[in-house]
């Protein structure tokens, strides 16, 4: 897990360490440190903060590019964990290789459950701009009241 905020790192590490489904292999304060940790430990999931130094899309692209150099290992799933809710950043992270985007402060107590779902293969966009992002990515210029599209429930 990489985040330049020591409180966030410590809180997430404590939360996931207390959950039997996870083993936290390390934390990092910047993207370079995180990439070194990933290369040494080969985790299944990597949580990346968008705004940490050398983080965000830079880390996601580096991990996506390392897939061919993984020597038979599966590339880790990159999960963005960020306070930034802008559609542009969410799109940038998805294009860089992140498989999910989780917004700090939007998750409630569900972080471990969401990460378990990502580990199981789900793509989760837990951000208030997720509907807009999906519409942009599929080329639908419809507004937020598109019939049949329900915004995500932040309590789940």
Strand order of the largest sheet: 1-2-3-4
SSE string, helices as H and strands as E: HHEHEHEHEH
What structural class is derived from the secondary structure elements? alpha/beta
Strand content: 5-15%
Number of separate strands: 4
The helix content is 25-40%
What is the general shape?
A: globular
Radius of gyration from CA coordinates = 15 Å
Largest beta-sheet characterization: 4 strands, parallel
Number of helices: 6
Question: What features would you describe in this structure?
Answer:
- This protein has 156 residues and is α/β, with parallel strands linked by helices.
- It has helices at 6-17, 31-41, 57-65, 87-96, 111-119, 130-138; strands spanning 45-48, 77-82, 98-103, 125-126.
- The protein has a 4-stranded parallel beta sheet with strand order 1-2-3-4, sandwiched between helices.
- Helix 4 (87-96) links the parallel strand 2 and strand 3 (98-103).
- Helix 3 (57-65) packs parallel to helix 4 (87-96).
- The longest helix has 12 residues, at 6-17.
- The protein is globular.
Which tags fit this structure?
single chain; 156 residues; alpha/beta; four-stranded parallel sheet; 4 strands; 38% helix; 12% strand; globular
